[in-house]
């Protein structure tokens, strides 16, 4: 039995590409809870994309199983699994095919057999959410990389999946667009109650985004935990080819100055800690 509220359940999942001797995924056990925001971290080649391709049946396990809402993905359940789990690939060119933005976003909902009115409404809502109203007739291949990424997100959004999986959603985007994409992802979770699974190499966005982190290395899970738990473990961070978020470096510098500040990784926690240190030094100043 899958744990209660578990929307995705991976059990002893292993996968080997036919052209390779090594396992790309090696005995993965992971349970993803409905409504959570989970970040999958790992070095290049760790197995993140291979893992994601198992979440809606693009790849089938060499051994083990993938369950969506308690049902193992099989020929019989794959259609339902694909409606439940929508994937936004790393390269938007892999998923945008239609001559116009509107037709591209309509593709998924039309395949679901929805009425014309419903499809129209979904296109409008999806374009509004990604701030691309007015782009309906534009040709996707003439858009910028960031705009294409937004079209790919809108296409998945229009299918209203319970889970959205995003493979490195901010890769190749300038800071402003990366921030915009992260805001959209956050709204998908807060306003549309979607479960979000994403992979990223950007450790600075994780403390504000993720409820939970899962670190994979050479196809195996090294650790799962809250961002605070994971970033406490320096050996783990090194092994996974990651680094501490920049905010933590400020606290390390303060500690080098002999200031009793506890290392923080998220902006709001950093603010609270700095206020605490200032308050404390103020009180010390009064008593001295
Ligand atoms: N089509 C394929 N055929 C053979 N081996 C593959 C194929 N795709 C990926 N691999 C191998 O499987 C392993 C996992 O690759 P994967 O693309 O899942 O990693 P990743 O964590 O997504 O990496 P990145 O961060 O670079 O996108 C790597 O060793 C890779 O070389």
Automatic annotation (TrEMBL):
SUPFAM superfamilies registered for this protein in UniProt: P-loop containing nucleoside triphosphate hydrolases
Cellular localisation: Cell membrane
Task: Kindly indicate whether the keyword Metal-binding belongs to this entry.
Answer: no
Q: How does it sit in the membrane?
A: Peripheral membrane protein
Extract the coiled-coil ranges from the record: none
The reply on keyword Lyase is: no
Annotated InterPro entries? AAA+_ATPase, ABC_transporter-like_ATP-bd, ABC_transporter-like_CS, ABC_transpr_CbiO/EcfA_su, Co_trans_ATP-bd, ECF_ABC_transporter_ATP-bd, P-loop_NTPase
Question: What GO annotations for molecular function exist for this entry?
Answer: ATP binding
Give any Pfam family that matches. ABC_tran
Q: Which UniProt keywords apply?
A: ATP-binding, Cell membrane, Membrane, Nucleotide-binding, Translocase, Transport
Ranges of residues in domain ABC transporter: 8-243
Q: What is its biological role?
A: Probably part of an ABC transporter complex. Responsible for energy coupling to the transport system.
Q: Which family does it belong to?
A: Belongs to the ABC transporter superfamily.
Q: What is this protein called?
A: ABC transporter ATP-binding protein
């Amino acid at each position: 039995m899958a744990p209660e509220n578990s929307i995705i359940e991976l059990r002893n999942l292993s996968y080997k590409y036919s052209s390779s001797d090594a396992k790309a995924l090696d005995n993965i056990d992971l349970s993803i809870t409905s409504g959570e925001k989970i970040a999958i971290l790992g070095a290049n080649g760790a197995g993140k994309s291979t893992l994601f391709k198992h979440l809606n049946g693009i790849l089938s396990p060499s051994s083990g199983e993938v369950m969506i809402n308690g049902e193992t993905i099989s020929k019989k359940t794959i259609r339902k699994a694909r409606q439940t789990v929508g994937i936004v690939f790393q390269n938007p060119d892999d998923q945008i095919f239609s001559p116009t933005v509107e037709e591209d976003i309509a593709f998924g909902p039309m395949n679901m057999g929805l009425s014309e009115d419903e499809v129209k409404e979904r296109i409008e809502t999806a374009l509004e959410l990604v701030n691309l109203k007015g782009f309906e007739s534009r040709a996707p291949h003439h858009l910028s990389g960031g705009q294409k990424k937004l079209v790919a997100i809108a296409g998945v959004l229009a299918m209203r999946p319970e889970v959205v999986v995003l493979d490195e959603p901010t890769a190749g985007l300038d800071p402003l667009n990366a921030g915009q994409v992260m805001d959209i992802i956050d709204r998908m979770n807060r306003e549309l109650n979607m479960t979000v699974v994403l992979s990223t190499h950007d450790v600075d966005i994780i403390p504000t985004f993720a409820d939970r982190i899962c670190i994979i290395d050479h196809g195996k899970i090294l650790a799962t935990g809250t961002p605070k738990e994971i970033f406490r473990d320096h050996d783990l961070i090194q092994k996974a080819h990651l680094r501490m978020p920049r905010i933590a470096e400020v606290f390390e510098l303060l500690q080098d100055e002999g200031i009793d500040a506890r290392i923080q990784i998220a902006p709001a926690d950093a603010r609270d800690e700095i206020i605490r240190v200032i308050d404390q030094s103020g009180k010390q100043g009064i008593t001295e």
